[in-house]
Request: fold
Amino acid sequence: MMTVLKWILFFAAALAMQMTVMPSIALNDTIYPEALLIPLFILSIEHGRMAGIWAGFFTGLLADVLRGDYLGAQALAMTLVGAFVGLFSKKKFNAGPVVQIVIMIVASILHDIIYGYSIGHKLNLIENIQRAFYTALIAAVLLFISHFLHLNKRR
Amino acid sequence: MHWFISYLVAHKHGSSLFVTVLLSIFLLNATTEQQKKISHALLHSVYFPVLKVMSTTTNVRDVFNENELLSEKVNGLIQENARLRKEIELRDEEFTTKKLSEDLSYELIPSFVVGREPSPLFNSIVIDVGKENGVELNMPVISPFGVVGKVTQVLNKSSLVQLIRNPDVFVSVHHRQSDAVGILTSSGSDKISVSLRNHHNVAVGDTLFTSGMGGVYPAGLPVGVVSKTENGDMLLYNDIHVKPFVDFGKLRYVNVLKLNARWTSIHKEVDTLIKEMTQ
Reply:
């Protein structure tokens, strides 16, 4: 129960960041990190595909509901991203930090492609890659901090 | 039915993915009206706590934005306040000058201070009137509060004024209560003083006026107030410290008294006499 609550709080924090901080750190006003992908990525790596699928679906649905248009588009994109990242969960595949970042970048590009396709937008691969790298960069920082905190806790 | 549930449990990943993708596609293909209804239902059931948190976050963000907006407004108001204060000050000075010119019965040439020495204890200022406005050498310069100094250089559109705190400027002052007359001198620092015989009863707070002697300043212009009296270097004299009425640091608006120095005419007469004698 505590784990579920912890993840709900993580997603809520990410959503709050998406609404407040992210627009202010956007590059060229269009390229900004998808904050919601970060907890989804970490959750899928930690708890596997099943958790990734459902968390992706509900988080995406929440983003859709809050955005008010294209209901189901984010849900679909994030569900598939959750399922994809879940393939590399710690239970099955012990990925190192570099591989994790690569997975994050691929997942972010995948998310943008599916979301763009769902809402009928033209594919802009360069912008998608830039956003993916930006998201991965933020995720890497967070992962590094979490890794550092874990180490200190163990000591 | 049993086999179906067993199948779902056995393939939970696949079936979860299937169900969620199916639901997403269903939502995407719903009409706008249906989507609105579903959104409303979700926001008031499953996502209600999240909505509550989000609205709080938005409020906090609004507070920050509002704070920024208010800071900008406050800055604008501070600037406007400073501008209006300056305007009021100038109007007050203009009004006092008008009153002063009525009282003095001399013609005044109003002017703005446009320059001064960069040091804190500056001894001269530049004003924006000159020959074209009728300014001549040695004309007295006053402010609504009292004597400022005298014109020492005149150009076409500007003039240099030596302040009374300049060590080269000597002003003959009159103490009305004791009828004493002395020469106001400055040591170059902030100290302005006058030496008066010690039998004259001069007290702190008394006002000193121009005496009319010396040829530059007419009699009766306020100069300053006695701030301190002490025994002078000479046995029979007291050193009277004077605080000028004019705050030279805040001087922006002055008036030139259109009054020629009286020694100009004496000089002319002496020159004529010398010429007659040599002829």
About this structure: The mean pLDDT of chain A is 83.
